[in-house]
Amino acid sequence: MQSCSLRVKKLDERAILPKYGSEWAAAADLYAVCDGEVVIGAGQTVFIHTGLAMEIPCGTVGLIYARSSLGAKQGLAPANKVGVIDSDYRGEIMVALHNHSNEPRKVSCGDRVAQIVIAPYIRAEYEIASELSDTVRGEGGFGSTGK
Length: 147
Fold this sequence. Notes:
Distance between the termini: 31 Å
Largest sheet: 5 strands, antiparallel
Strand content: 35-45%
Shape: globular
Structural class: mainly beta
Oligomer: single chain
Strand order of the largest sheet: 2-3-11-6-8
Order of helices and strands: EEEEEEHEEEEE
Number of strands: 11
């Protein structure tokens, strides 16, 4: 496990710094900042504010994922499945929370709405090739390995 210092700016006094749920948790919880309850109708997507801006270190990316309890129990998950926060973004972190259930769901100020992972990445230089190396799998995809 690697660790780093990450600068966070509170844009709203009610904002809560991301928190890890356990000693070895890979993701830290993100908390809602809102006035009163936000109702997310069935099949609707609503942008939920966190009141935070972050200085993601160069060479890393902030990845926003669903909280398993919200997704499994309430049907609430980020609309874009995984949010990507680049290291040069300095605006507010927001979660486009989608309600996959058939019932309206409520989010209140201070609720945990998503989780963030800070991860290293590789920036590829893409180049055209007329041939690719051979593998046993080849072009098989979408269940082609028989599992």
